[in-house]
Each structure stands twice: as structure tokens, then as C-alpha cells.
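A common beginner's mistake is to predict each chain separately and then try to dock the pieces by hand. The better habit, illustrated here, is to supply every component at once so that their relative placement is modeled jointly.
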Amino acid sequence: MRDLLPWREPVPQGATTDARGRFGAYGGRYAPESLVEACREVDEAFREAWADPGFRGLLARLLAVHAGRPTPLTPARRLSEALGVELYLKREDLTHTGSHKINNVLGQALLATRMGRRRLIAETGAGQHGVATATAAALLGLRATVFMGERDIERQALNVFRMRMLGAEVVPVTSGNRTLKDATSEAMRHWVGATGDSHYCIGSVVGPDPYPWMVREFQRVIGDEARAQCAAELPAGVPDHVVACVGGGSNAAGTFAGFSGTSARLVGVEADGGAGASHGRLGVLHGCRSLFLQDGDGQIVEPHSIAAGLDYPGVGPEHAHLRDLGRARYVTVTDDEAVAAAVRLARTEGILPALESAHALAWVIRAAADGELAAGSTVLMTLSGRGDKDVSTLKELL
Amino acid sequence: MTNPTLTAGAVERHLRARRATGRGLLMPYVTGGIAPGWTGYLRAFADAGADAIELGLPFSDPTLDGATIQQASDAALARGASTRRILADLAEVRDLGVPLVASTYYNLVLNDGPEAFCAALRRAGVSGLIVPDLPVHEADELADVAADAGIELALLASPTTPRPRLARICERSRGFVYAVSLMGTTGERAALAASAAGLTARIRHVSDRPVLLGFGISTPDQAREARRHADGVVVGAAVMRRVLDGAGPDDLRAFLTSLRQALDQECDRPR
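With all components supplied together, the output reads:
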């Protein structure tokens, strides 16, 4: 029941500085001067909107009629029996566009219209956030420009086509390693020259303040729903463990937020090759201070994961803070474990999860086997997305 | 009010003294480690009349730089450049006669820790520092440490910076104020941005610190025009495009001389 503090709005640290948006030693607004005013405007607009019942109502309505919320809590009966634990799945895979990304994007798109912005800028790796952004833009009559690494464009051709079908402009990024990290850098560069008419719709709990906590607030609908569903359906009311995969960490942040005041143990599962919270060092990238994978010279290292959504070289600042506090812990699983978990869920429950979500499941399977999860314990796992996008990857492997 | 020339560090004293002669200030940029013998560019810049030299310490993710400086950073890193090696190379360069101002992203400062980073700069003969992703409200951690190490941390001001914040930036900046001429990244542009004049006028209203205008200044004509608004110019991408195209120190000397001449012509005009 300790440490409610991290889930409050991040507060300035120390009396001599007005540095904003701190989660303990992490966070902040390390934006170039040209973006500082734009960040302040987003911050101000978000605070007003979030305190406005009209905005909250409008967003709740969109989430219900367009995105299909609330999502169900599904008991994984056959898998639970095999593992000896009670596993419940929070089904973000059943949202419109197939992942939790839509929760954040609808919130930010609505905020953008409230701010008078006519265009959304977004970065995307696998394309899920890009597709969600293109969807929200179409729904609200906004233009959308999505930056995507050239290599990801090749790997995710179908999502590129989906975005274009939805009317978005997809801009190939040719710098650096031509993946998510570079797409994020390029989207920020573009925003510097477009702050007047465009809102930068960041897809995870990263970036300069207010993004990490704003995105968490938009994603906390996952945790709030799950908390109420657990209260109604679980004998104990609260699960023993709450598990979610972590790339930048938005579905985990939203899930954890719902269980902040409970005794549930929080576990963030990272990809072995992209484990910012597990293997990162303190640094500053894309506007925030957090844990990043870097070499001895301080150059950011390119992550590698079979799940493109976990291919980010760092982790959101709130996760870094939760790790330091010991309120959440972060573990890693390998590509192979994730693939095996995806197949197992498909065959036992009839659900093909995204490879990102399969990481969370892989840890549950491992922890149940090695006794880390006591027999009979209850586990809530956020199934952040559906696996359709990964079918061709799996087809090559299996 | 204290006399700024008494409290100013070496970079600022140098720039103020040059400005006092009516000279338009020129600060060319080079990415450290870009080519074998890259320190030859520093010498060429000084010979061609630079008043300070901006030395880029390459970072893997330069989020405020356009394509040219990105390419230069990637090329330098591919050659094995690092902060440590670049600073070690500076041992070859003695008595440039103009201050060296390092510029890099904050991750590289944190990698060593602000104190060790600034001490290393100082030992290598660098006296100023620019960190484009360290805005004034986050600068406390570095500013005092830098000052103690004898490193002048210059802050950036942008066309969208509101007035009270601009005053604070000018007050906290050391060496000079780096005026970002436009809302965009570094890189060559066809014309000087219209936003440059307004920003520099607003800076002058609150500060008499030297003001260097950067971003997009690529030609002698643009330098001449910029000089009407600011004490001097920073020229980065226009230099680095030439370097990436294979221009050596002697070729750059000719380009910088043309910028120098343009600035000198302008200095006779009323401002």
C-alpha cells in the first residue's frame, strides 16, 4: 500500500528550481528552446481539459462508441489450469485498431482540436500508433503526418497502406538506423517547424513534460476498468500480481495507475534486447531524463526485439522511478519465449496476442513454472494488442 | 548593476572586446572527428578571421539538427569519434587565439557527469559550451558546475520564447546569447528568416550580452543581413556541407574569408 506518490501529477523537485514534470530523478522537459513554449501550451491545455467534465465526457463517449470500451476481462481458463495460477486478461486487443494505442490517441486528438490544431504529427515503429493516429485524425477531421523509419516501412508494409487508406501522410525516415528511435527524432524536428498548427501526438509515456503523465492519464482507463472488473469478479477483489509489457511503457503505465493504491505487485516485462528499465543507464533522450541503452561513450544503442513495439532504447521516466522505488519491478524475456507464449495463448485460449503482449505472458508462464508465482495466485495481465500484425513474422519463424 | 565585463568569462570578454571594435562576430562550426586531421579546420577558421569556433561533439540522436549536421555526426561516429578522443585531438592545437565553444546534447554531458565533463573540456582548452536540449529551466544542474570549471554555458533563445523567459535566458547565459533565427532545425536556408530581426531586437531590449544569430545562415549575403540584427553569426551547416563534400581546411578558409569580408563590410553601416 506504499508509495501512492508516483501516481500523482509529477511535481517540481527541490525548492530552487522550477523544473517541471519530475518522477523522482526522472522526467523533466529537456526540449530545445523552440519547443518549450509548445510543451507549455500542451501542458496548460491538458490540465484544463482533464479538469473539464465536458472534455472527459466527450472522450469517454468516443472511447465507448468508436473504440469499443470498456474492454472485457477474460479469465484464461485452460491456460490458468495448466499454469496453476488464476490468470485474467485485460483485453486491449479488442479495441478498435487492435491495441491500447487508441486510448491515448483519441485523448490527444480531442485535445488538439480543443487547442485549435488542425494536424497531428506522430512517430511509429510497427505502425500501431501510426494507424491509431491516422484513425483518430480521420474521425475528427484532422490531417495526420506519420514519421516512420525506412526499415520499419519495409517490414510493416501493410500498416503503411492502412495509414494511407485512412488519409494520413507517411513520411519515410532515412536517418540513423531508420527505425522508431529515428522516427521519433524526426517527428520532434518536424514539430519544431510546425508548432503553430500541429500537435505532436507522442505514442508512449516518453518525451518532454507533460507527455509522460498526460499519456499515462489517457491510458489509465485500462487500469481503472481492470481495477473495477477485478473488484467485481475476483474473490479477493485485487489480483496478487499485475503484469504488462514495457517498451516505452504506456500500456503498463496505464494499467499500473489503476492499481496504485492496492497491494498488487506490479511487474513490467521488457524485451531482452530493448530493456531500458532493466539494462539502461541514466540519460536524456527525446526530451526526458530516464534510463536508456547506451554505450560507454554515451551514444544511444539501437535496441533489437522481435516485437517492434518494444524496439525503443529507453523507458518512460515514471517506470524508471517506480523501479527505483521498488514499487514495480522490471524483468526481461527473450524473443523465443515471447513467440512460444503467443502460440500457447492461441492454442489454449483462442487468442493470438501481439508479440509485445506475448512478452508479458511469457513472464507469467516462466514465473508460474519456477515458483515465483505461488500456486493459486491471481494474475492480471494486460493483453495490449492483437497479433494480426505479427502473423507474417510468425509464419516465417514457425 | 554589476559591470558585466568584470564578471564575464574569457569567451564573453573576448567577444565583447571584438565587438567594441565594431567588428561583426563570426563563429563557424565543425563536427569534431569528422575526418583525419580535422583539427586543421580549427586553424583554418582562426586564420580566416573567426572570433570563436563551435566544436560539435557528435551524438547519435541530434534532435535539433537538420540533415547536414546529422550526416556529419553519423560520419564522425562511424570513424570512431567520441568526446574523449576529440578532446585528446585538441592537444595538437595550441594558441588558436580564439575561444573554442563545445556543443553537444545533454546525454553526453550526463554520461561523464557534469563535473567531469566540464573539467575535461577545460583541460582540453575549451572555454564555452552549448547544449541545445538543455533549456534554461533545466540548466541548474550544469550551469554552476560549468561556471566553477571555467566553462561558459551559452543558452539558446528562440522566436517563440516569451519575454520574461527571454530575460531569464539572457541573464543566465554566459559567453553570449545564441539566438535561433527560425522555428526549425539547423541547416542551410535560401534566405534569412523574418523571425530573426524580431528575436534579436527583443534580446537587445533586455541584455547587452553579445548576441550570435544562428540556424540557416549560409551565405555572405545572409551574414551581412544578419549582422544588421545581431553582433555576429554562427555558420554550421554551410560549413559542414562543404566538409562532407570533401572540402579541406584550405577550401574552408576561402569560404570563411568571404563571410568575414561580408561582415566587415557591414560593420561600417549604422545599426
